[in-house]
Amino acid sequence: GRGHGAPFGFGPDGAAEYLGLSQAELRAQLRDGKSLADVAKVRNKSVDGLKAAIKAKATERLDEAVKDGKLTKDRRDKLAKRLDEGIDDLVNRTPPERPAGPKHRWR
Fold first, then answer.
1. Residue 40: is it exposed, middle or buried by C-beta count within 10 angstroms (0-12/13-18/19+)?
2. Number of other residues whose CB lies within 10 A of the CB of residue 5
3. What secondary structure letter does DSSP report for 68?
4. For residues 54 and 62, what is the distance between their CA atoms, to the nearest angstrom?
5. Phi and psi at residue 101, to the nearest 5°
6. How far apart are CA 10 and CA 86, in angstroms?
7. Helices in 1-107 by DSSP H: which ranges?
8. Do 53 and 15 touch, CB atoms closer than 8 A?
9. Which tens digit of pLDDT belongs to each residue from 21-52?
10. Which CA distances in Å does 90 have to 14, 25, 67?
11. Mind listing the pLDDT tens digit for each residue in 78-99?
């Protein structure tokens, strides 16, 4: 998925497999306020390995988008650079706290 506030799918994709978790299990841990780096440490996995797994999956998706004509190579390169620049924030960021209390439904 594209979750965890990431551009063009630069999120937990690749991370769950590296961490030995399902996407749902990883999302649950992130919802509990953990960062990807926190989950890696608990799972006895290196943060550098986590970053490499995320970058590999993102690169695969970008290359596929170029191949499918959905993305230009220039745009692909810019997005890859953006991921490189933001990978530390991505793995160390925790989701914002949700307000306490009941959810309100608008009618």
1. buried
2. 12
3. T
4. 12
5. 105, 175
6. 10
7. 15-19, 23-31, 36-42, 47-67, 73-92
8. yes
9. 998 999 999 999 999 999 999 999 999 999 99
10. 13, 18, 26
11. 999 999 999 999 899 876 666 5
How far lies 14's CA from each of 23, 66, 83, 98, 104, in Å? Answer: 9, 19, 14, 26, 34
Sign of CA dihedral 72, 75, 81, 83: negative
What number is the average pLDDT over the span 64-87?
94
**The residue type at 93:** R
14 confidence band (pLDDT: 50, 70, 90): confident
Closest CA to 96 of 17, 33, 35: 33
Q: Which residues contact 99 (CB under 8 A, 6 or more apart)?
A: none
User: Encoding tokens for residue 41?
Assistant: 């440490």
26: CB partners within 8 A, 6+ apart? 12, 15, 16, 19, 39
